[in-house]
Amino acid sequence: MTDLTTSAIGRVLRNNYLGHLAYLWQGKPYVIPITYYFDPTDNTIISYTSEGHKIDAMRKNNSVTVQVEEIQSMFNWESAMVHGTFEELEGSVAKQKLHLFTEGVKSIIRRKERREVEFINEFSSKIYSRGIPIVYRIKIREVIGKRRET
Question: What SUPFAM superfamilies does the annotation carry (predicted)?
Answer without folding.
Answer: FMN-binding split barrel
